[in-house]
Amino acid sequence: MQFVGKGCGTGADDTSHEGSRIVESLLDGDFIDRSETVYNGRQTYFLEPKAKELIFRLLMAGDMLSPFIGDEDVDPKRDTSRWLIELAYDE
User: Fold this and answer.
1) Residue 72: pLDDT above 50?
2) Is the dihedral of CA 22, 28, 33, 38 positive or negative?
């Protein structure tokens, strides 16, 4: 995980207060864990995503894996039509 300084990493000019509200929302939703730490001699928090059980069957249509996952470019006409047809038949 990378330390993020000014801006909370959102690309906007977030204030510390806005960042705190975002963190509180993530904590309330049980999406992250927060632990106290020291960085460059200053007290701060280390944020980590919580492990969640993944339901991989939601990515499947029959025996075909969704074309939307992975690091390759997706050709919507070629890659998705067969998967969507298989998904419709699964229902």
Assistant:
1) yes
2) positive
The full set of domain ranges for the chain reads: 1-51, 56-90
Q: Are 18 and 7 in contact (CB under 8 A)?
A: no
Tokens read off for 47: 């944020």
Q: What is the DSSP letter of 63?
A: T
∠ CA 59-63-66 to the nearest 5 degrees? 30
Least confident of 40-44, 45-49, 57-61: 57-61
- The pair of structure tokens assigned to 8 is 């909370």
Residue recorded with tokens 């904590």: 27
